[in-house]
What we know:
Blueprint: H1 13-17, E1 25-29, E2 34-37, E3 39-40, E4 56-57, E5 60-65, E6 68-74, H2 82-96, H3 116-122
Parallel strand pairs: 3-4
Antiparallel strand pairs: 1-2, 5-6
Amino acid sequence: MCIVRAQDEFPTVGEVLEPFTMPHIVEGWMRGSHYGPLMPCRVGDAYPGRFDGPPQVIALGFQIAEGQLIGPREMFDDPGFDEARHLCNVTADHLRRHGLFEPHRLPMEEMEYTTLPEVMKKLADRWQPVNGHAVSGEAVETLPASVAL
C-alpha cells in the first residue's frame, strides 16, 4: 500500500498517475517467481486469474474538503489507461511465450517461492556444459546430461 499526496505544492494527480500509462516490467508474477508487466486495473477488474497475474495495481483517490474525507474514486477507471492495459496484455503474451525460463522467470538466485533451487541442487552432478556454456554464479545455465543435445 502506498499513500501519495497530490496537488498544492506536490505533483498533480495526473503527474502521479502518468507513470502507470506504461506497463513497467516488475517482479511478482506467479507468486513472485516471474517477471510481468504492471497493469493498472479498475477495482472490479483486479482479479489475477491468468497464471496469477499479470501483476496488477489499483489506485483509489480521496479528497479532503471542509474537513471531510471524500471518496474513494477509482483513478484507473479511465479510458486513458485502456492503451496501457492493452500494451500490458501484449507484453504479457510476449513474455509468456518465452516458456518456462528467462526472461519470463526470475533468475535462479532470485527464486524464493518455489522448490526449483532445491531441485537444481539435487541435479547438480548431472549438469554438463552445452556449447561451451557453463555454470554462472549460483545459477546453472546448462541442461542436465539426460536432456543435453
